[in-house]
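Good morning,

Attaching, inline, the backbone tokens for the sequence recovery test we're adding to the shared suite. The designed sequence is right after.
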């Protein structure tokens, strides 16, 4: 639900992949990066002659309001996954997707796909949702049910990596809703 990121604090200089991903944010090259023992600098200082969405005439960036217009349907978990897909940033593959995780106590956490001009790294929806699981104080064992919302014939699919990762974390109750 955040709409912008103005600054980030990290303990080491961001690698090239991280810099490229940060360039996809709506704060772009103006993002302030704070490192221990150094003066704050902007992403532009760390990524001179940057290549990003603007170079490809992409109008939206990560944290911009997105709505792909998929109708909410099904139970609450399905609707939350579809809503996450509606918010996803997928201007390169045109393959929006989202995931919803239901936890033991009934809490539902979601993640939206966020891709980048270099496609590496892109942020899969499951990774975004798993980050929230940890940040909210839950354990992966608390995941009881998962649902991925994606296009039936998208240029990419998150289904196989989502199933594989969740199976590895002990969640077997995984389903998919196909966006129309």
């Amino acid at each position: 639900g955040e709409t912008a990121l103005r600054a980030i604090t990290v303990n080491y200089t961001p690698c090239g992949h991280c810099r490229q991903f940060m360039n996809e944010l709506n704060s772009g090259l103006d993002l302030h990066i704070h490192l221990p023992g150094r003066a704050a600098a902007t992403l532009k200082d760390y990524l001179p002659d940057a290549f990003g969405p603007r170079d490809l005439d992409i109008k939206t960036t990560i944290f911009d309001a997105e709505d792909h217009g998929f109708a909410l349907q099904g139970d609450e978990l399905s609707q939350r996954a579809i809503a996450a897909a509606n918010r996803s940033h997928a201007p390169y593959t045109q393959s929006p997707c989202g995931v919803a995780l239901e936890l033991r106590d009934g809490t539902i956490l979601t993640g939206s796909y966020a891709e980048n001009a270099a496609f590496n790294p892109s942020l899969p929806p499951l990774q975004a949702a798993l980050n929230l699981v940890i940040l909210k104080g839950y354990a992966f064992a608390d995941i009881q049910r998962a649902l991925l919302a994606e296009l039936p014939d998208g240029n990419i699919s998150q289904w196989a990596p989502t199933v594989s990762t969740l199976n590895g974390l002990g969640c077997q109750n995984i389903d998919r809703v196909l966006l129309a």
